């Protein structure tokens, strides 16, 4: 018995020493620039890449300072204004009338409003405020049943995914003392131009990671050689995170209105996953906007079978519909893919999924350096 105890404590000591040695080597590995694990975010426009980058800042870095939050104020007000402009244009397309003809003047005020310029380095329009007339016009329009009907039918004219959130928060957002919250910032929409890099340390200090938002507009029509040409700018990428917006299943592309948005993403995924440039990368698939997808499948009556005629599952069943889309995406490639359903605006969800993705990357690194 005594001997057994001694050998167990011996084993324990040995394991502890080995674990400490692995931790030391991993920390050393993580501090070298050449050991940064680069993860490249790719996907069609508006799939949620920049939202994931914002979440990396919230989860792994210092988050948003008060000043940074405030700097989003003009963008969010502009998003609100342009969403209302877009809704009014959509009403024209769908021949939906304003409920109250008195709101025609409100519509004119909004449609003729100049876009709000985002903050530049030399400028500080953090405290940009809409005029009282514009705020009243926005509020009156949001109360109009015609506008609400058009928002519900937003998928028919590409209304952006954050429009409803912004309209529902209209009074708070247009208040004189409005200070954007992190939730608001995650809903803000600015098209990315140029590469955005975000560095952070994950997996208890063992993995130095750089997430790259390529800021390139890719579609299924982008030729393979163009993809390869662009990707040469990104050396030593460990993994590609391909982001797909699930909520696009019932939407058409803005530029080519005969192409379904989800089909477009599936086709782009086929191209990316078969591109020779990414042959040695981990291929991670984020099927994003699960929150909106759930709402649509459960309540919108826009059943998946209307857009994918080979879907034979039951209506209003989120899991079956989501798995059908996952299988469709996985069927376009032969290579191993790590698929995840995700809601990029939900910090807890992103954290849990990212941890598991980064653990795979870490495991690969460890295997490479024969630490295990
Ligand atoms: N409700 C909801 N909205 C989301 C989600 N992910 C992203 N969005 C919203 O979708 C919009 C587009 O997201 P972005 O992160 O800017 O998309 P992107 O892929 O970076 O777009 P580009 O820069 O044009 O390529 C933003 O308004 C986000 O707030 C999600 O999971 N749920
Ligand atoms: Mg972006």
TrEMBL record:
One of its GO terms (molecular function) is GTPase activity. Gene3D superfamilies: GI Alpha 1, domain 2-like (1.10.400.10), P-loop containing nucleotide triphosphate hydrolases (3.40.50.300). SMART domains: G_alpha. Pfam families: G-alpha. Keywords: GTP-binding, Magnesium, Metal-binding, Nucleotide-binding, Transducer. GTP binds at residues 46-51, 161-162, 186-192, 288-291, 344. It comes from the Eukaryota. The keyword Metal-binding applies. Mg(2+) binds at residues 50, 192. CDD domains: G-alpha. GO terms for cellular component: cytoplasm; heterotrimeric G-protein complex. GO terms for biological process: adenylate cyclase-modulating G protein-coupled receptor signaling pathway; developmental process. InterPro entries: Gprotein_alpha_su, GproteinA_insert, P-loop_NTPase. This is Guanine nucleotide-binding protein G(O) subunit alpha. It comes from Galendromus occidentalis.
């Amino acid at each position: 018995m005594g001997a057994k105890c001694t050998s167990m404590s011996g084993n324990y000591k040995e394991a502890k020493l080995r674990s400490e040695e692995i931790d030391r080597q991993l920390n050393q590995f993580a501090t070298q620039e050449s050991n940064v694990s680069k993860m490249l975010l790719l996907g069609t426009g508006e799939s949620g890449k920049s939202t994931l980058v914002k979440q990396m800042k919230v989860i792994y870095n210092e988050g948003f300072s008060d000043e940074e939050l405030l700097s989003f104020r003009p963008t969010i007000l502009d998003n609100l204004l342009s969403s209302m402009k877009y809704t009014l244009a959509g009403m024209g397309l769908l021949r939906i009338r304003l409920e109250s003809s008195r709101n025609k003047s409100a519509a004119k005020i909004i449609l003729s409003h100049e876009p709000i310029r985002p903050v530049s380095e030399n400028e500080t329009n953090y405290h940009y405020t809409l005029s009282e007339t514009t705020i009243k016009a926005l509020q009156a329009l949001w109360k109009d049943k015609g506008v609400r009907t058009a928002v519900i039918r937003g998928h028919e004219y590409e209304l952006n995914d954050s429009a409803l959130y912004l309209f529902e928060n209209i009074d708070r957002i247009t208040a004189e003392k409005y200070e954007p919250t992190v939730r608001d910032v995650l809903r803000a929409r600015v098209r990315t131009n140029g590469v955005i890099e975000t560095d952070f340390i994950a997996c208890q200090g063992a993995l130095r990671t750089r997430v790259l938002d390529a800021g390139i507009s890719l579609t299924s029509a982008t030729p393979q050689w163009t993809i390869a040409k662009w990707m040469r700018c990104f050396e030593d990428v460990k993994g590609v995170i391909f982001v797909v917006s699930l909520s696009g299943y019932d939407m058409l592309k803005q530029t080519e209105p005969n192409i379904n948005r989800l089909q477009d993403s599936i086709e782009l995924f086929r191209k990316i996953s078969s591109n020779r440039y990414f042959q040695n990368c981990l291929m991670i698939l984020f099927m994003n906007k699960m929150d909106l997808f759930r709402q649509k499948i459960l309540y919108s009556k826009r059943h998946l079978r209307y857009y994918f005629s080979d879907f034979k599952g039951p209506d209003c069943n989120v899991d079956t519909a989501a798995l059908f889309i996952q299988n469709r995406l996985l069927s376009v490639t032969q290579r191993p893919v790590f698929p995840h359903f995700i809601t990029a605006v939900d910090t807890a969800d992103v954290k849990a999924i990212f941890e598991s993705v980064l653990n795979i990357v870490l495991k690969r690194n460890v295997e490479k350096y024969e630490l295990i």
